[in-house]
# Entry
Amino acid sequence: MTVSNVINGRTDKVSAATAERIREIMDRTGYVPNGPATALATKRSNIVALVHAASGERPQPSPHDSIFLDEVERGMTKAGRYLMIRSADDVAVTAKELRSWRVDGAIILGAFTSEADEVQSKLGLPLVFVDNYSTSSRISRVGLDDFHGGLIAGRELISTGHRRLALVAPGVDRPGVIHQRFLGFMAAVSEAGLDREAVTLLDSAPFFDAALALGQELAASPQRPTGIFATADIIAIGLLKGLVESGVAVPEQASIIGFDDLPEARYVSPALSTVRQDIPAKAKAAVAALLALIETQERGAEVRLSVEMARRGSVAPPPKA
Amino acid sequence: MTVSNVINGRTDKVSAATAERIREIMDRTGYVPNGPATALATKRSNIVALVHAASGERPQPSPHDSIFLDEVERGMTKAGRYLMIRSADDVAVTAKELRSWRVDGAIILGAFTSEADEVQSKLGLPLVFVDNYSTSSRISRVGLDDFHGGLIAGRELISTGHRRLALVAPGVDRPGVIHQRFLGFMAAVSEAGLDREAVTLLDSAPFFDAALALGQELAASPQRPTGIFATADIIAIGLLKGLVESGVAVPEQASIIGFDDLPEARYVSPALSTVRQDIPAKAKAAVAALLALIETQERGAEVRLSVEMARRGSVAPPPKA
# Structure
């Protein structure tokens, strides 16, 4: 049992000296555990999966997803687990495929709220949904206070003097993180006594080039909003570049706030003010939640991380009319 | 056999109609193949691994590695394989761990040249080394023409008029991609009849903040080089930001060329001139090489992709002395 604990990376149950001795013997004899045989015997594969919803047409991986994945991999490796990854147009189909490998559990990133229940009931596996707003008591969730993020972005623009506002997002209607950010932003508008008409809603795919094109369009429009909130940094960065290249100075003529605080927020000029989330912390919480779920099978836990304004150079008072 | 081919994703050996019918039956009956049992019976797990060398101290994942990984995952999924990923301080140790899962093969990204032989002989598995300059006939390699990349970067700066040059890299001495880019750059210096002393070698870790600090330092130095080649975009982006923030105009007072053509090269102002590599094509080549190797076991193949200058706004003639 002790040896098996060491082999399977459960060293918390074994003294450090003993674990070290066992590892030495394994090393010397060239012992390699037989994963498939162990999985059949114990019904545990020690494999966990990360499934992330991703359009096949995406021009490049989302930096947010890459940081999340990187941290999940480190966390699972540290816990002695193997990580399988799979991007999916249809999360339900992919999740089923993963059953074939008898994964012990999975983290599902970016599925729509409506898919969560279906995936959970089809699989009956330990699953942790990240950035998902399912209200089912059977779903374990890790996410952010997205509403608060939208709220502080709105407050930041309004308190700086902006009255012609825009919210740029890949659609705000479907229940989920973007919808929550939208609701928070509108709450800031409402608490300031502004009319809903003060806000222009603009659609943009969450890709640099789509947002760049929109920024160029905005630059040419006569009744341009002066205070812009983009629900993702990658959109904000494209808008910023599109505006600046078209001769609209940021922040002098237009202010922009993003969401995420990607490393890229600091690469651009001016550096991007944004709603900061701690992506590695979110990944660590998802890893911890899944490992706990595998042990206890008690679903329904919810972790919601806080967000905060990261103030940089892309916000200033609006130009005098 | 036909059913097994469909289950295992080898649909190239089965007519499309038959494959579709078998999938329908599997769907209707809720059939899920038992991966571990199949692996024991066939000695094939259908799992492949991507191992990437990565320092535990990295502040965030390398965008290059994220794009590569994303494309490998898509390719392996399309081929009906499962992908395990593992970052590793020590590639040899991690590769051994993966044997436990009876992976059918692995792609090794970023291992040092000297490690390749050791890993290959210890594992005896189908392995494809990416960006590796081992000359062993037992190693299968996919990489770039890094020498040519350094050469065209050097020519670009010299032909624009620069005579005070710098090469910024995370060390140029160890055999590998960086060393090749350095050799190519020095060949351009030599073919132009310039003295080696025209080139200042500067060290920078491949992280934005390290390069930012170096850019700030450079801005303050009296005999500043005017033409800078960074062996990675992430370094070039940090340098650019550090110089510009410290009041050195790019490209008017300093020119910068990167290497990679990451999406981020277009986010910065001015947009970065850089040596373009096609990372998704490199990933596709690695996937194809590994799948071929798993079938034939014939090692020693080599694929080397070309690179080219992507000209943007960060290069101009040097200021008049």
